[in-house]
Amino acid sequence: MRVNGAKVSSDVPLKAGDAVVYYMTKAQEERASHTVVYEDENVLVVDKESGVSSEALFCELSEKDASVRFLHRLDRNTEGLMIFARNGEAEEEILACFRERRVRKIYHALVFGKMPKAHGMLTARLIKDEKNARVKICPVGSGRGVLIETEYEVLEERGETSLLQVTLHTGRTHQIRAHLASVGCPVVGDGKYGDSAKNALYHAARQRLLSKQLTLDAGGALAYLCGKSFVSQKNL
Predict the structure, then answer these.
(1) Is 128 strand, coil or helix?
(2) What is the pTM of this model?
(3) What are the chain's domains?
(4) Is 40 a catalytic residue?
């Protein structure tokens, strides 16, 4: 990456008019950023690849279709489903669904260790550390931060790792990664909240987290999508 012609390797402040150039290898350029799962005149649902930022994906999509509207994001190294609106009415309804918790989001996560039960609900409080781009998990009784609820089901145990289905009942920054790490089962490949020694042992440079299923309880112009589930074809 170069800023105004100078190579940079860490965060740098930008000002209006700066020229930012990002260079990729041929293999990176040829790699697809996503696949389309569903589309109509109102919405576009895509399956994002790991390593692709949500913002970069939006830029790519909007170059092909100027009507696409950015509604939510996934971490760069989280793969799976994202939904975009194609008009103002659809944008307003989907944002209302997110705001009013009328979106059911199911993830798959590969974690180190074993969960205490085959199925359970984890509750805690989450505090954002904006300066360090991290979050901290605290006990519910601490009264600090915001309440989070993370439901899980063990799908498969694979030796030192477990494959979980995770349902978000609250959608906070890094909720799944931080919450699972706080109970001793960090996501494989998570460089921020995970186990660096085990990540190195498993050659896991990216977190094994997948936005697997998305279901809207929509109304208005999107009532025809109410209860429809979009499912990623990826597996962990």
Answers:
(1) strand
(2) 0.87
(3) 107-210 (3.30.2350.10)
(4) no
